[in-house]
């Protein structure tokens, strides 16, 4: 191997010799002056200048005759020559004559001599075939350049691969690529570092080129850094320079090996929750070392990076903790409904761990089974189970079944997912979460449920909304069978307008499945949210059928699809697929109108030695030929190990093809597995007129990948060649209208015409927009194909004309104090003006000391005139307003305001004020609650304010004269005084002008104590009626009330003894007393029972859950529990004396007779039956509308029937035959449920 200049210096011990690779200035070849141990700050060698040094040879030596003293100077000698020699073992001229390179050694030497200021001599030993070169130059820098050029032209080009630890990559690259650039410049070799996507650590590869075929490779097991991957760095260049670059990189790697990265892998799933909270303990184990920890939850591994000693200690600590918990924890398995599992993951699992020190592991939602496993130490498991149950029941979950059959359920689910309905529903009902079935379970499920989780009121509201949506969607969906391979053609930009027109014409939305699902069906949905949607099922069905015909017609016109089976032995499949599917991607092509299934994917159970190709006939034939050729090449071992192709494209298109940060080229590399390099011929640098660049594409194994990449690049270049741009002069004021909200208008134009439209952003200091293209604030740039640019330009100019007509602007000012009224509460007033006029209104934010505020109105002339008039009208009202105040004691405020503000509205109406509630709102302002002020402020038109003040003072004066008097009215006569609907009371109040409050009314207590309370001290509170208002009115009302009081009548009293055990059966839950009151009879009881009405529900017996079949064999059987116990067996003993008070003897006799009949009926209710049904789904049918069915059953069977509100038990009380008849009737009703229905 040839030695470098630096090696020769060290070999010959040339101490103090100049640096052979200076980077800033030319070195002085003279030997340095001897050092005395002190630093010479004026020394150019110790502190070289950063500016380039002038070439000594180009400067003419000055004469000594005209110079300053001394008069006689020594003759200036010529700059000494610097020489160097090196030997090349074998001169390599294999690339001579290509691309304009010299063809012989002599031509190489002449070219280098002409290019650099050096002298070169060469001597070749014919026996050893070694050639020694002697170089001389007046500049070390020129000599080094000449040497590197000779080595590059005469040495063989080699490729070295240096495995570098991933943690050293950032240091190798350096800030902004400075380090790797310095090595490249020093050695002249090409250094490739894989792109950042290939790195497995957090390193950055700024400025490095990459080969996507290279990936990070772990080091062998047993190394200290076994967990740190290595990155292959490729060095390509002349042999000695490549070795020099390798040595420089090895030095950098050696300096960074003090840091390491290790991973603790395969932590058991149930142990990981115990390890994560101990992060602080692990960091303490680092003992002050710089160590970072990263958790990969999915891979169940922890990555530890940092200083080597600290990393080792932390890794040992983690492994020790894993081993400890593995030995300590035990498990307990339990079952919970699948819908509750989602509450036990994520934050829910973390809360359980924090509360109980136990971990809960649940199966994936798409996996069958309801089992969950709780892990923890034996002492912690009870608390863990409690925490799990508490968390599982912490939220209300409603399972909403999508109506069937199952294909309809899937259609409804598809629509809800495609329109993002779960997110919309969650946003509309804060506090709930909506979950749809996992995609993996949809295909096999027989019933699809939508789970709604949250607080019960919010969930119930969401369920109602979903029910309403399902009602609109049921019968409004339809699937159309269309081969998925033609979906892309049917749903292309060409047909986009027609498909969108289906919604405009038929109100039907079209949903194509994702291409990756390869699903040959298209979903049609009659839009339930459209304002023009028809509720008629006939209209929905007709619209769906019309769109189905149109879609099928588009599919028929799209392509002729066929399927072809290619017999290929399984061992050749890997050649067809290629690495990471790259070859298969090349076969399928960019349009992806083919489906290629290899081996087992083809679905043939008899063999895997086939490849199934399905798609458009023409593409299928092409793909079959390519597959057969690849297989034939593989069989004949003719696959090229490294296939290269070169072609030229215009230089101006290279940047667009490469893309931002190489995105375009990287996409081709990842998709097809090719390497793409763009290079410029040396001669092109001299020819400024040339516009060509050369692209080189390489692929390790398969030729087809390279050709496909070449075809795609040429296609893109041809498309760019047709590209043009045009700048339109459009005033900046119209830009926002042309762009639209969130850019929707300009995006539509770009998609329609396939162009890029650029508007200037906010102006920079130089007045130009802050965009990549240099455009002015009043310019718009359109880029794209010539036809697309012309179409977009025409439509954009038409839109400008429309904007000019509808985007007129007028600016004016209003007093700042009127702005709040113009805006209204939360912007209600200004938004109403916008909606009514269609104008856009911008109100500037005025400063605090400004008396006026600027307002800009945009829109049509009519709209802005109307909006301005409305704004000025409000402003003028504020300008003409006056303010005043009235002193009103705070105790009168509530009375003046009235219920819901009705008192104020009546006050304004009496004063002749406005009737508009919005205008009324600002007229009268009462102090806020808690303020000590008694001032009521009035603001508005001067005349209205004056009238309001007078009316308010009048009303307050009346309130100040207000008194409260009491009068005794027997409670039995209150109903007569109030009258039906309060009519009599209202008439009395209107007649006297006073307010009358009866006991039990809402404002009875707030009226206050009557003045004559001492005179009425002996009156029963139930008989005391309060009268409030002006004294004269109150006195008049009291006299009127006293005149209408009827003298008390003598009551007729009777009694009856009722056994306590029959109390509940007789009273019928209070219905008996209500009936007696309707007779005018009141009842008093001497004693009430303390025990419950019926015996408690007995414990279920072993045979209590047997099938109970109805006598009618045609009725289906219902699983239920039926238990009968004697009534009154544990009933309370004793009797109660009932005292009846009636107005007349007839009512008394009638009441006693009714109670006696009830006692006789209670004696016959000897048994109690408890009928427990499987669920409450049949209760609505049992109860009936407003209890009609239960009432009918009671009448028919003679039994008392109570339907529980808390559980699924029906209690039947009566004779043994009566409860049996009632039970059979209820079972028959519960078994007649509709088929196919499933209750939530």
UniProtKB/TrEMBL annotation:
Q: Which residues form a coiled coil?
A: 692-723
- Pfam families in the record: KH_1
Q: Note the superkingdom of the native organism.
A: Eukaryota
Keyword Transmembrane helix (UniProt): no
Residue ranges constituting the K Homology domain according to the UniProt record: 156-254, 328-393, 560-632, 641-718, 722-801, 806-876, 880-957, 961-1046, 1162-1231
SMART domains hit by this protein: KH
Record flagged with keyword Protein transport: no
Region described as Disordered: spans on this chain = 1-45, 193-229, 1084-1116
- CDD domains xrefs: KH-I, KH-I_ScSCP160_rpt3
Question: Keywords of this protein's UniProt record, alphabetized?
Answer: Coiled coil, Repeat, RNA-binding
- Spell out the protein name for this chain: K Homology domain-containing protein
Lineage of origin? Eukaryota, Fungi, Dikarya, Basidiomycota, Agaricomycotina
